[in-house]
Structures are given as structure tokens and as C-alpha cells.
Amino acid sequence: MAMAALNILSQPWPPTPSSLSFSNNNISFLTQCNAATATINSKLLSLSHSCHFSVLSSLYGTNRPNSSSKLSSMPTHLSKSGTGCSWMQDNSMHHNDAADSECGEGPLHSAFPAKAAEISSIEDLYEFISSGPLMNKLGLAPEAVAESIDKWLAYGLHLCRLFQLKELDLSVPQKVRIYHYYLPVFFWCEDQISQHRSLYKDGEDIPPLVIGFSAPQGCGKTTLVFALDYLFKVTGRKSATISIDDFYLTAENQAKLREAHPGNALLELRGNAGSHDLPFSVETLTALSNLSKEGMKMKLPRYDKSAYNGKGDRADPSTWPEVEGPLTAVLFEGWMLGFKPVPVEVVKAVDPQLETVNKNLEAYYDAWDKFVKAWIVIKIKDPSCVYQWRLQAEIAMREAGNPGMSDDEVKDFVSRYLPAYNAYLPTLYAEGPKGSDPKHLIFVEIDEGRNPILGN
Fold it and tell me: Computed from CA positions of residues 449, 246, 377, 174, in that sequence, does the dihedral angle turn out positive or negative?
């Protein structure tokens, strides 16, 4: 499996002060931290005696994935842009080709020293977790963190195993990515799933919760989904991952679209609204939503971006991964997921070529967004970051000796997406996706380094 799954991990990632400190918005959170002191002290004392049993047994229990299992059990649709994972190499971990094909589970090292004197390190981690910029936004109070600190430690260890990190020697950037980003979002997803399942009576078939991830290219949504899917599996729940990329038109039909709109650079290649097979999307998402019983199976479509010299084509169905029910969640991600049409004068002011794209977008709610019941929108301040992120990935590929786009090719590639970002992101950020419920929607704002920040 290509390392593009870890695309965002390929670049230096210095944490910003905004991701590591409190603002006025978190003053109340500091107050709550004081209230949690007694709870955390009690919990830490308990952990000092039982951490090897309660946490490590969860790692070796029946829900632990087979260490020899291939990454085929993980998301397999990830793009092939970018290699390496320097934020994971801060503690001298070196990724190799074997890690591309294996599940990323290295030798297990206990994260919990037996000596009681070492317990302060767990308290430090608790304080670090509680200081995260997403905690207040996601409703994760310090008391709740204290009560579930063993879960945070266990799941953090699982992610260390996945990304082959030394859990006893995590750098600050690694701690930020795991404890300020991936795990808070995972716990939010768990809460959404719990609310979803509570709507059904005992004995009823419960459809999987479709969680939508809308985020610009290169910002890390695919790696986030990769980590969440892994955590669902290690906790004994079945999930499926799908991308809007998997619904691109076949090469033949993309050629027809290009011929039908001569001179429109936004529809010349795959990407914008109009270049997706919407009936196929409905068929696939409907089938996934019905995958609620034991023994039910289906294959997940995948798209081969390397076909036809990079122009792409739908992958051969014989290569599609199979997923089996009952599914707990469907993780659905895409750069334009949640985009909705805006007034014609708006798109014309951005780029006249967008007028056709805007018209095409009218059909996307029924094909995609209506299936999504919980939303995670990853928010950026400046769409031009997409160019820099893509350039970083392609440079990393070239330096690794793999085929990659030239700087000019990257500029041309990204230029076909920027008009849509400029036209549709303001409405998405102001209103959320069409039909979304604020109780089932979170905005995660990130900076140029892909770090979560407090935002609005």
C-alpha cells in the first residue's frame, strides 16, 4: 500500500503556540481542570497499580487486530501522492516499505512504568490532553478525561503502534497530533454513534452512521480517517471508508464530459462537480447504509489515479476491497463534500467557468450529502495552502525517487480547484452543509501546519 495515506505526515510540522496554549475562550476550561484534580489523582493512583492489566490487556484482548494482518484491512483507497512521515520520525522512527504493507504494529513497549514515582508523567499527559484546542468545542470536560484516562492512554498507544512511534518518547508534534486531534475527534465520533444508536429499539436493525469529512486537499483528512478507521477496528466495531474520489467518472465518460464542454478547464479533468458518477454514488451509499446485518457483504469501489498517465480511471472491480456487516460507521470523505450552489453572480465573479459547475452542484445533495448524519468540517483560513501542501507532497515524492508532478504541473493541477474553494468555502463555513444539524456538526480549524487551533 502506498504511503500517501500518510501524505500529511511527510512534512515538518512544528506546533504553533495557538495549538498548545489556552485563550480567553478556555478560561472556564482551566476552572474545570481544578475541579477535576481530585478525580485525576484518584484515577492516577488506581492506574499506578493496574495499568499493566487494564490497559495492556485491552491491547491483547479479543479485539486486538492480528499483528500479521495486511493493510488491506485498513482503508485502501488512499491517494498515491506523497511519501514519508517526518512528524513521526522526530523520535528516530524510520518508515520503510514493509510498513507500507503491514498494519504498522511494531513491538509493544509498555507506556506505563511500574514505579509509582513515574506516575507524574501520566498526570502531565492528562494536563496536556485537557489543554487541547478542541476539548471545549467537543464538550470533553477535564473530569471526563480524568475518568477515561485509561482509554486515552490505550487508544494513544494503539495509534503509536499504527504509525510506529515510540510511545515512551513522543515529540510534542506527535503528542499534539494524537492527543489534541485524532483522539478528541474519535471520542466525538463515538458519542455521535451512541446518539445514533439510541434512536433504535432493541432488536431493530441499526444502519451505520455515515460521518462526512469535508476538508481541502492535502490538509490531512485522509490520514484522520485512516486513524479513526483503525481505532474502530481495534475496539471491535466494523467501519467502512469511502471517498468522493471513488465516484469519479470512468475515463471514457470523463472524456465525453470534456468534449461536451470544450474550453472549460474546470471540467477538462476530474475534480469539480460534474465529473462524478452520481447514480453510482447513490447506489453505493444506499448499499452501505443497508449493511446492518451479520454476513452481509459488498465491495467498495476504488479509483485508480495513476491510470492513463495520471488522468485516472475507475479501478478494476476485482481489486476493490470487501466490507462485511454489520457496520457501525461509514467514514465518507472528500474535498468538496458539503459544497452547495451559490448565486450565479457569485460564481461568475470568481470564475465564469464555474457557472456550469455550480449548475451541476444542484444534484449533489441527493447523491451525497443527504446520506451524511454527522459532519466534521476541517476549516482553513486561506485556500492557497492547498497549493503549498500539494507542492510539499510532490517534492517529497521526487526526493524519494518516485514519479511526481513538476512545480508547474502542481500549479496547473491546483488552479482547477481553487475557484471552487473560493466560491463555496465561505458558505460552507458560515452555514454548514445543507441539512446538517448543529448538534451533529463540528468545525475543526487548522493552521498552515495542519495543526488544530481554537478558531471560532
Answer: negative
> What phi, psi does 374 have (nearest 5°)?
-140, 140
Give, for 42, the enclosing helix (H) or strand (E): helix 37-54
Region 163-178: mean pLDDT is 90
Rounded to whole angstroms, the Cα distance separating 149 from 361 reads 44
**Bridge partners of residue 334, in order along the sequence:** 214
SS3 322: strand
Distance CA 167, CA 251 (A): 45
pTM of the model: 0.78
Phi and psi of 436, rounded to 5°?
-75, 150
Rounded-to-integer distance, Cα 280 and Cα 390, Å: 28
Cell triple for residue 88?
513521526
Each residue's pLDDT tens digit, 208-260: 999 999 999 999 899 999 999 999 999 999 999 999 999 999 999 999 999 99
User: What is the grid cell recorded at 383?
Assistant: 485556500
Residue 172 has pLDDT above 70, yes or no: yes
Convert 99-136 to b/e letters by CB count within 10 Å (16 or more is b): bbebbbbbeeeebbeeeeeebeebbebbeebbbbbbbb
User: Chain-centre distance of CA 281, in angstroms?
Assistant: 20
Q: What is the DSSP letter of 438?
A: G
Q: How far apart are CA 99 and CA 165, in angstroms?
A: 12
Residue 239 in 3-state DSSP?
Answer: strand
pLDDT tens-digit map of 20-50: 333 344 444 444 445 554 555 555 555 544 4
Strand partners, 331: 211, 241
> Hey, is 59 helix, strand or coil?
helix
Is the peptide bond preceding residue 216 cis, with omega within 30 degrees of 0? no
- Strand (E) or helix (H) holding 383: none
And the C-alpha cell for 161?
Answer: 503502534
User: Residue 286 CB: number of other CB atoms within 10 A?
Assistant: 10
Angle between the N-to-C axes of helices 418-431 and 385-399, in degrees from 0 to 180, rounded to the nearest 10: 120
Which DSSP state fits 352? T
Which alpha helices (DSSP H) does 299-363 contain, by range?
344-350, 354-360
Q: Which of 273, 202, 269, 201 is nearest to 244 (CA)?
A: 273
The pLDDT, as a whole number, for residue 45 is 52
pLDDT band with cut points at 50, 70 and 90 for residue 356: very high
pLDDT on residue 97: 35
All three cell numbers of 11, joined, read: 512534512
Q: Bridge-partner residues for 144, per DSSP?
A: none
- Greatest mean pLDDT among 2-11, 18-27, 85-94, 256-265 lies in 256-265
Q: Which DSSP symbol is given to 182?
A: I
